[in-house]
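Thread: "does anyone have the structure for this chain?"

Original post by V.I.:
We have the sequence but no experimental structure in hand. Need at least a predicted one for the grant figures.
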Amino acid sequence: MQPYDLLGFGETMLRLSPPGAQTIEQSTSLQMYPAGSEFNVCCGMARLGRTAAYATVAADNPMGRFIANKAREQGVDTGFIEFTEHRQGLYFFENPTLPRPGMAYYDRADTGMANVQPEDFHWDTILPKTKIFLTSGITPALSSSAAATVTKALQTASQCPDTMVAFDINYRSKLWSPAEARRTLEPLLEYVDILLASAGDAETVFDMDPQLGEGLSQELAEQFSIPIVAAIYRPPESHVLWCISCYHGEEKELVSCQQHGRMHAVERLGAGDAFAAGFLTGYLEEGPAQAVSMGSAMMVLKNTFHGDITWTTRQQVQAIMEGDDSTLQR
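Reply from O.Q.:
Generated one for you, tokens below.
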């Protein structure tokens, strides 16, 4: 029996943000949050009642212990965190206030994950323990050794008969160029069972037509021979928040949904990770249709929380899936 539904692997940084609409230059205080794509997905799935573990390299100091503590707080197994003498990555984020965009400033050179080596983790004994192994395009962008570590992990996971590989493109323009990203990521897709992508990332990295709409997931699946692809894209209709399509190649099945309703966006950071947590949970439980619906509901709720973690409950997710947009419950 596999003890974990999900094992995530990636870098978590400390995110420092001034309160409200303040800029860093004017602020006298900063709020601190854990921030990492795979970390966020692990926390989200744990909050939905699934078993999750997180693997990373963290600084052997209070900053690294802060990351581990926050994962444990959400019910995530931290037994695969390796502690190192290298520093913890930081990033500073100013909240958007239209027309001023949100701004991210990274300070992540020479971190533990940038110095990770393929032999740092015993993937052959770790990966058979999980139903899904998740990493993203952020991790191989950190360094050549991080890319080599991701490659080894994906190769090993693909050889585990009961472990699926999930991969989120997660393109970051401040880490590498589109050409560098494609050159590194495209060879990794042969090991991927579930690909998660936004239309923007698919266009930037793989030159996909942004007008494909719900056909984007099928196009990605067929071009790169990936069994399951979920894609988020913007709809032409202004009253629709977003659209999601999922193509399941083995069944020749295309599932899509549109997210309607009201939403007051407090903070958008981590919304894609919330979608991934909901999608993977729904897929494990009932398949693509449930995955798309649960992923969308998680993404709605994430927009209502400060910080990168989706502080939601299973009951709240279910209410959104059932169309409950009431503004007061008592």
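V.I.: this helps a lot. The chain has a mean pLDDT of 94.
O.Q.: and The first strand starts at residue 4 and ends at 9.
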